[in-house]
Amino acid sequence: MMVLIRISVSFIFFGFSLLYANVEQTESEKPKEPVYGWQNNLTGTLNLTQTALSNWTTGGENAWSWQVNLNGRIVERQKNYKWVNAGKITFGESRVSNGGRKKTDDEIFLETVYSLKVWKTFNPYASITMLTQLAPGYDYKTDPVTKISDFLDPGYFKESIGFDYEPNDHIKTRVGFAVRQTVAGAFAARYSDDPETKDTVEKFKNEWGAESVTDVSLQLNNLIIYASKLEIFSTVQRVDEVVVRWDNLFSAKIAEYISVSFNFKLYYDKKGSVKRQLKQILAVGLTHTFL
Questions:
Q1: Rounded CA gap, 50 and 109, in Å?
Q2: Is it the case that residue 241 has pLDDT exceeding 60?
Q3: Which of 15, 80, 211, 226 could join 178 via S-S bond, C-beta 3.0 to 4.6 A?
Q4: CATH number of 2-51+61-289
Q5: Domain ranges of the chain
Q6: What rounded mean pLDDT belongs to the chain?
Q7: Residue 202 near residue 192 (C-beta atoms within 8 A)
Q8: Which residues, other chains included, contact 197 with Cβ-Cβ below 8 Å and sequence gap of 6+?
Q9: Which candidate, 137, 112, 139, places its Cα nearest to that of 126?
């Protein structure tokens, strides 16, 4: 229990350090009147890259790549509560010469957070999140390639309750007790198996502990928007297995339907890899807001 308390306190101080770093900016802002009711937003982005060579004497190979991003948000804001539903779907592929198509990005993330408005900025919440992928994943370093993941294989679900802190529209953080489930099928030995049970491969793993989630959304200038989401989960059963997911996006709209984006992701889960995982994507493409 003392370990859990220390973890929770560290999460709280981390979140508050981010918040107070922005105090000077937020204090100068004029408070806005709350808008009650439903607010919906859905944005889609398509990024394309293509290279074609014919009798190119200095060398090179034909190549193409594409990526689709969908980001949606449905918010109901009332005087006594706020209900936020958010979703993100990303998928991309590439191909170099005749090497075949390879997946470059694949993610489904869904989140619902219900907060009671008890105080002005500090309120109790309950949340549910899901993280998985659309299509099979392969290890392209092997010959032949090896299938290592699929839809809901693995799949991650998390339920939590606690308190959130939202002093302004730019930064919000929440800290609470959480339960995390990992489901898997054909690749259960890689993602959900308990190493202490030698004769059985578990396809379901349930862990409980503490979570910290911090969301940042800043308008850096007239063109550039920065959005960040940092999630930390620490299980009580194994205190050395802290799961970290940090997603950062810089986006700039340079024309009515054209945007530039830079996405940087850091992920750490000891069950999948003892080293941190990194991904960065720089893209120029078409964007459209549907809602």
A1: 28
A2: yes
A3: 211
A4: 2.40.230
A5: 2-51+61-289
A6: 87
A7: yes
A8: none
A9: 112
